[in-house]
Amino acid sequence: MGRNSAIKSFDPAKETGQPLDLFSGRDARRPVIIELLRSPWIVRGSQVATGNSGHGGKRREEEVTVVWDGARRAPAAFQMNGRRYSVDALVQTWTLERAWWDPRARLSRRCFRVLARGGLYDLAYDLLTGRWLLVGIVD
Hints:
The strands form 2 sheets. Strands 1-8-7-6-5 form a 5-stranded antiparallel sheet, with no helix packed on it. It has a 3-stranded antiparallel sheet with strand order 2-3-4, with no helix packed on it. The protein folds into 2 domains: 5-38, no CATH class; 45-138, no CATH class. The relative contact order is 0.18. It is mainly beta and 139 residues long. 12% of the residues lie in helices and 42% in strands.
């Protein structure tokens, strides 16, 4: 069967363990979803408004140096204010495409939310300028 034999031979009807449905119904899920939506981990740092937004994050836009891991296709480390931050985990990735029809207002970025030194950072590669930016920090 090859290297995926364990996956191909898995039979969920025969296996025991935690059931796939974590909640018994919609009413059981609602409090968890509401709590998650309030969490600053759900809000992208690049979307946090400046000032006291209540999201526990800081929106920035400063150029940083990034070490790219080609095998993982993600940042391995970045340097900010003379300090090197090794990336412990890649949390989330997304793409920003705004105003593609207007060359003056266009924005095209690949964003990476990473965990480094106990902090949560949003890094973005600007496809139009070829620069890496730190666009958000979530406390």
